[in-house]
Amino acid sequence: MTDSSRLAELNSASNSLAASPDFASTLDGTLYHAATLVNAGCSLLVLFNRTTKDWALHAHHGLEPEDAGDRSQLGIRAAQTGEVVTHEQAIALPLKTRGLVVGALQVERSGGFTADDRLILEAFAAAAALAIDSTLSKTDFVSTVTHELRLPMTSIKGYTDLIRGGMAGPVNDMQKQLLETVHNNVNWMNALVSDLSDIAKAETGRLKVSMEWVNPAACIEEAVSALRPQFEAKTQTLTVNVPTLPQVRADGKRVVQILTYLLTNANRYTAANGQVTLSAEIQDSFMRFTVADNGVGMTPVDKARLFSQFFRSEDPVVRDHKGWGLALHLVKRLVELFGGQIGAESEYGKGSTFWFTIPVASNQ
C-alpha cells in the first residue's frame, strides 16, 4: 500500500469515527479501523471502570471473549502511564485529549509493527481519543441531567397525589381529571428519564446489573400480571406458552423490564380483539423468549432501524402513541449485557415477532 493510500484510509477511518451515532458504534469503529489500518489480527480497548476505580478491558475485536481478558495488560499499562508501550507483536497507545488520558488502544499483529505502522496508529489514536471523549461527555451530560430531573419530578408527583387525595381541601371532578393528567404525564416523564439514564450507563459500561440465577417463569408471571389489564381493556387475547423452564443467568428485575417493554409494544400496536403470544423454549445453551402479535407490523425500512436510539416509525398508527424510541434500544443493550441476542421478524400489516435469548444455567 502506498503512503498516499494509507493516509487516505486513515482519513476515512477518522471521519467514520467522528460520524458515529453512539458510544457503542464509536468503540466498534475504533477497534475495527485500528486493526484494519495495519492489517492486524486483533485489537483491544481499555477504559476507566468507575465501579472498580481502575483501568480495565472494555471491548475487543478479533478475539474470543475468554481469551481477551488476559491480553489487555499492555493496554492497561499504556493508560496508567500515558505512554506508548510495545512488546514483541503488540503495541498499546494511550488515548489522550485535552491533556487527559481517556483510554488506551492495544493492537496485535504477527511480525510486529514498522515505524510507519506506529505513526499511522498514533494519528488514528488521536482521532479515536477525540471521538470517545466527545461521546463520553454526552453520556455524562445525560446522566447529570437525568439525575437533576428526578428530584423536581418526584416533588411534583408527591404534591399532586396529596392534592388528589384531598389533603389541601375538597377536589371537584374537573380538578381530579386535570390532576390525573398531571400524574400520568409525570409518570411518563419518569419512565423517559429512567430509560435515558439506563442507556447512558449501559453504553459506557456503568449500568449495574445483579447477575444471578433467576426463575424465568416467575419473571414472565410478574410481567404478564402487571400488563393483563391493558390487554383486557383492548379485548386482546394474551396467550402464554411456557413449559417447565430451567434458571437463566441474568438480572431478574431487568428480565421483567425487557418482557414488559416487548409486551407493551405488542399491546400498543395491535388492534382491539387482536392476539399476542408469549412463549419460551430452550435452544442449545440459551433460553429463547418470543413475543408475537398480529398487529400493524413493520416495513423493511423500519425493521432495519428498529433497535436504533430515538428511532420511531412514521406510520400513523405508531405516531398516535407517545414515545421517544428508547425502549427497544435499551432492551437490546440489556440482552447483550446478559450475553444474549435479540431480533425481530415482521410483515407490514400482518404483525411482528420479537425474540431474545439468555444463557441458561450450565449445571441444569
Low-confidence spans: pLDDT under 50, at least 5 residues? Answer: none
Please trace the helix and strand order, writing H or E for each element.
Answer: HHEEHHEEEHHEHEEHEEHHHEE
| Helicity level | 40-55%
- Percent in strands: 15-25%
Largest sheet: 5 strands, antiparallel
CA-CA gap between termini: 53 Å
Number of helices: 11
Q: In one word, what is the shape?
A: globular
Largest sheet: spatial strand order:
2-1-5-4-3
Kindly state the number of beta strands. 12
Which value, in Å, is the CA radius of gyration?
Answer: 24 Å
List keywords for this structure.
alpha+beta; five-stranded mixed sheet; 364 residues; five-stranded antiparallel sheet; 12 strands
What does this structure look like?
α6 packs across α11 and α8 (252-268) runs antiparallel to α11. The protein is built from eleven helices and twelve strands. With 364 residues, the chain is of the alpha+beta class. It has a five-stranded antiparallel β-sheet with strand order 2-1-5-4-3, sandwiched between helices. A hairpin with a 4-residue loop joins β1 (42-49) and β2 (54-61). The chain starts with a helix and ends in a 5-residue tail after the last strand. 49% of the residues lie in helices and 22% in strands. It has helices at 3-18, 23-37, 65-68, 73-81, 115-164, 173-203, 216-233, 252-268, 300-304, 316-319, 327-337, and strands spanning 42-49, 54-61, 85-87, 90-97, 100-108, 212-214, 237-241, 248-250, 275-283, 286-293, 342-347, 351-359. The model has no long low-confidence stretch (mean pLDDT 87).
